[in-house]
Write a structure and sequence with these properties.
The protein is an alpha+beta fold. The chain is built from ten helices and 14 strands.
Length: 456
């Protein structure tokens, strides 16, 4: 779930979900407020009609029966009772009182009282802003007051307009509609997010595959116009990169291959040189040139990714490479196991490991190879017992034909291409290759194959 919300699909889904819910909440808030105002207006109108009816009827009731009538007629939120003391008059007439007085006529005298009914201040059931979650309580905002009514026969009555007794609808019946509403929003937001981010995810996967395999199949054109345009541009870029790499590889391979013939003729002709010392020096220079041509061909092959990917047992491959090195007289030991397969090119991975081990033995006398598995990734460490490399040159040694000053002699036999070839192969397999000086001495090369290539 965490990985989902860290991606663009999850973020777009979350934004759409929150946006729709916020809009729905605002709409609900406005609708409930409008409904509350409508209920209040309806209740005030009903109270006005009811008060006029009770007061008009009280006139025709005999005085000896009026008290009994008032008890019966005042059972709802409209109460009419005898007022014994006409005090506490409010000089300002309320809007409700003025409307009622106008409807009753001049025979009745209405005055607002300063004293408000106690029920006006008590919380009453009412809608909350989000009524779908149930009803709440609050102070009634409609008409709630006391009026003094002077009847045509001179009797004073007290008219009390109280809040409604029955609670407003709680909205509990809306729970059943809220759940599918929320689910429909979630499904809609997910579909929109997936439809929007799906093509971008395909582009991201294609870019990742392009870094691992330049000959990967192009993206199929489809979707919206913008996505089709971006996919077509990506395919065109891949074709140009593939063409550029092919031209560079062919040029390098052609140059190094064509050099083999004149170098072979030169070696044959050097056999006829009479001066042994001069002959030895020339043969040594020629051997260095032939080694450079050979590694140039290896460099060209390391940039060629035409070999098919297949499952490779990393432990078996390491055992084979280290055993061949020992048979060749190199001091190499292997510890640990990865316990995982890789999807890669066996010959290229072997060439990468051989270059790293040869480099360790050449400059550090021996190679200690350690392999382990960490969080689904295999980590291969190759450490020598040499002097190491200055920290400011750890990155430069990966550049083609770059060699340290201490190795610039014919006895080393280095051309400065071994690490370049190893890094090219590692990058083609989605792996990383790094160098570091070990705390106990020597140089350590670390080759990490990510979990993406784990086969089991």
């Amino acid at each position: 779930m965490k990985a989902f919300f860290r991606g663009m699909t999850g973020r777009v889904f979350l934004v759409l979900m929150l946006g729709i819910l916020a809009s729905a909440a605002l709409t609900q808030y406005l609708a409930v407020n409008e409904r509350q105002r409508t209920l209040q207006r309806y209740r005030d109108f009903f109270a006005l009609e009811r008060a006029e009816q009770i007061i008009s009827t009280a006139v025709v009731v005999l005085p000896e029966s009026r008290n009994q009538y008032l008890r019966v007629a005042s059972m709802g939120a409209i109460k009419l009772e005898v007022l014994n003391d006409l005090t506490g008059i409010n000089p300002e007439m309320s809007e409700f009182g003025a409307t009622l007085a106008n409807r009753l006529g001049k025979e009745y005298t209405l005055q607002s009282l300063l004293e408000r009914p106690d029920a006006c201040e008590r919380p009453t059931p009412a809608y909350t802003a989000f009524s779908v979650f149930g009803a709440g309580t609050g102070t009634w905002r409609g008409t709630c007051e006391s009026l003094a009514v002077t009847m045509p026969d001179g009797q004073h009555l007290k008219l009390s307009i109280l809040p409604p007794r029955q609670p407003a609808p709680t909205g509990k019946n809306e729970y059943a509609a809220f759940v599918p509403f929320l689910l429909s929003i979630a499904v809609l937001a997910y579909l929109v997010a997936r439809m929007t981010m799906g093509p971008l995810k395909k582009l991201a996967v294609a870019a990742k595959n392009l870094g691992h395999d330049i000959n990967h199949a192009p993206i199929k054109l489809g979707g919206a116009t913008e996505i089709r345009t971006a996919s077509a541009a990506f395919n065109a870029m891949q074709a140009r990169i593939r063409q550029h790499i092919a031209q560079r590889t062919e040029m390098l391979a052609a140059i190094t291959h064509d050099l083999q013939t004149p170098l072979t003729r030169m070696r044959l002709r050097l056999e006829k040189v009479q001066d042994p010392e001069l002959q030895g020096k020339l043969l040594e220079d020629l051997s260095a040139m032939q080694q450079m041509v050979k590694e140039g061909l290896d460099l060209a092959r390391s940039m060629d990714a035409t070999e098919a990917m297949q499952r490779v047992d990393l432990d078996a491959l390491l055992d084979s490479v280290c055993a061949d090195a020992v048979d060749a007289g190199q001091d190499v030991d292997l510890k640990g196991r990865a316990g995982m397969d890789l999807m890669g090119r066996p010959l290229d991975i072997r060439r990468c490991l051989v270059n790293l081990i040869d480099n360790a033995v050449k400059y550090g006398q021996r190679a200690h190879v350690t392999v382990e598995r960490e969080a689904g990734a295999s980590r291969v460490r190759i450490r020598d017992e040499g002097p190491g490399i200055p920290p400011d040159q750890l990155a430069q040694v990966f550049e083609p034909f770059y060699r340290l000053e201490t190795s610039r002699n014919r006895s080393s036999g280095g051309t400065g291409l071994g690490l370049t070839i190893a890094r090219n192969i590692a990058e083609q397999h989605g792996a990383s290759l790094s160098l570091a000086n070990h705390p106990s001495g020597g140089l350590e090369a670390t080759l990490v194959f990510p979990e993406f290539y784990a086969g089991k």
